[in-house]
Structure prediction request, 427 residues.
Amino acid sequence: MNSAKPAGRPVTLLVIGAGDRGTGHARWALDHPDRARVVAVAEPRAVRRERFAAAHGIAAVDAVDDWRALAARPKSADAVLICTTDRMHVEPAAAFAALGYAIMLEKPMALDEESCRGIVEAVERAGVMLAIGHVLRYTPYTKALKEIVDSGRLGAVMSVQHLEPVGFWHQAHSFVRGNWRRADESTSMLMAKSCHDLDWLQYVIGRPPERVSSFGSLTHFTAANRPQGAADRCTGCGVEASCPYSAVQLYGGMLERGEHTWPLGVVVDEFTSEALRLALAEGPYGRCVYACDNDVVDHQVVSLEYPGGVTAVFTMTAFARAGHRSTRIFGTHGELIGDGRTLTVREFASGQEEVIDTAAAGDMSAAGGHGGGDAGLMDAFVAAVASGDATLIRSGPRDSLTSHLTVLAAERARLAGTVERVPRPGR
Prediction:
């Protein structure tokens, strides 16, 4: 494993991809200049590259449009944050590993088993650290919940119910109109959005699952459910004012309130009324949700069986208000109910009930920092690089490989109507 960086200076970072995730992770360095500093960025979109470089004081020569330009240079930083689109993770991960960079790689690590295994083999061969962006492992809420489970206070965990309320507007933005709407252009809904959750269940239960089954489909966001009189776009649509999926109301409302963050920042580069008008009139985010080319599911359940007969059920649904995940854990001596911030522990023998407020730092959206998980991930990764201690990373290569293999098995089960065994990660 790579050694610690020289003492007395911040960890230096390259950022590959200055979209929402890359910009968000790099913001941590601006908030902690004594611990980390971004020294170069690769981003193909000029306006985002220039904005990012200005925020971090990066010279023009170190703000490039292709990550290969940075990979062609001798090693110039301690670590790299790879925040490209999902299908562009494998090549830069392998290249920067070979150069000796510690790597923080956005989730999902890759979209198929061969590529996931290839990334793990590349970092292990190079002897560098790898952290996957499973931010749910790093929240204060998860820390408190995991400590309760591991303490034995609930007895042996027997079963878990876990819900992800994606949210009606988030589904419309990302998975109907947006970049993750089609499996052939991105990946499955389960991999794109809920690999977090299957990874989190593995972390909390403390072991990987053995078998999975799954059911789910695209049911609502189809042409068959298009309201009478609806136009192809929200602008000028006769039913837009009463539609919960109105792009005019979602993005226009954010602009009016001065909320220049995700998801509005994905729709426009300039936060003006004219830029938004053009984006909704001509771009993908102004389309009617019943007139898009989307094919990923809008609701799905996954059933999992773990060693020792432990079971879990995960539900992902678009048809809810976006918010915290909620979980119920059933043990032999007690149960735990969690809503993403508050934990309620009920002990059977004593009849006692304790409520613990974990005071989540922000909401669970990308704009809200995923309940403190974004900051927790960066804190742990930078500390690991600074000290040379890879054990500070809670989402390392082998654990993350296992959870990705679980996602792939669950999607095979959904498509084939089967019960699938989860492959082992191997050494």
Residues 397-416 form the longest helix (20 residues). Confidence is low (pLDDT under 50) at residues 364-369. The chain is about 35% helix and 20% strand.
